[in-house]
Amino acid sequence: MNDAVSYLLRAVNHAPYTVPGVVLEDILPEGVDLVEAVVSQGTTNLVGRRLRAELGEVPSGAVATLLVTVVPRQLGIITNAARIEAQMCLHSSPCPS
Q: Cβ distance 20 to 57 under 8 Å?
């Protein structure tokens, strides 16, 4: 307890084209305090317990990351939830804006 814990979220583009509008969202669990959020590209913002990383375009074969560092305030198991979203491209290369 009170020692920082870091974890890495990765957005990997396996599509044959650049994917625009990539966003990682991490719902920080109760019982942790955010110390730092570092993205490989784009920006982050925190509203309540919702950490949002707007990563923008991720080229084909590329990886964009969000490194999150938190400090737990309680003992026990802490479960984290995250999700990813992007603009949808159907059979299009390059993906239209």
A: yes
